[in-house]
Amino acid sequence: MKRTVNIMPCLDMRNGRVVKGIHFVDLVDAGDPVACATAYEASGADELGFLDITATVEQRRTMFDVLKHVTAAVKIPVTVGGGIRTLADVESALEAGAKKVSISSAAFRDPAFVAEAVKKFGGKSIVAAIDVDRNVKLPSRREVYIDGGRTPTGMDAVEFARKMADLGVGSLLPTSKTGDGSKRGYDLELIRAMVDATKLPTVASGGAGKLIHFLEAVKEGHASTLLAASVFHFGTFTVRQVKAYLVGQGIGVHNPPIQKM
Predict the structure, then answer these.
(1) pTM of the model
(2) Residue 134 dihedral angles phi and psi, to the nearest 5°
(3) Is 250 helix (H, G, I), strand (E, B) or coil?
(4) 141 to each of 72, 183, 216, how far by Cα in Å?
(5) Which of 67, 80, 81, 180 is most deeply packed, by most CB within 10 A?
(6) CA separation for the pair 38, 18 (Å, rounded)
(7) pLDDT digits over 104-116, tens only?
(8) Which domain holds residue 91?
């Protein structure tokens, strides 16, 4: 059976608005979250990311009220992340309509929390989000960063991914700090290394700027979901255009666009 990939626009949230930056900084406004979400669903998105990018640093909970408005407006699954630190946070996210909950900084600081979340809510509901930057001194040459990409940990990214897999998470969401917003392409070596090490469904995130980048993430990175923000928010491509391109390259996608005769 032919493998198919998902397309996942991501809503990076700050102060109730969608924003997008480069290398996790220099943020600019990109619109209303409900308007963005419904537009992406109409364009063929298979799922959405909802990331409260300042919740962890500001030591507050995710914007669950805004999340509720987004999940009520669309039928496609939503993965929420940012500021998820307790089982109550996970429960609140799921009650607000999220299908999956992404845990990042708290996963590094308290792996037992991840194990407890998997046990209580099921592995398919829990995503390990791993922000990464380059460090040539580590085996994979990639280091885990936490606190929204602000704090280096000294931990090898692929080894950490393996640790999360052993705890039972259902999928991985690595984001390259170097690639974020750069439009220079995904970190294919990182994605492929995590897939090979864990055999888990892995989201390609950070760096999509050209149509070929989506193809490379599938063929070379072995990603099962392709996340992008800037190219969708600012109209470089639509989800439908990305899907049509992938289909033309022989890649299976969920809900492919209808080809005009």
Answers:
(1) 0.91
(2) -75, 140
(3) coil
(4) 41, 21, 20
(5) 80
(6) 13
(7) 999 999 999 999 9
(8) 4-253
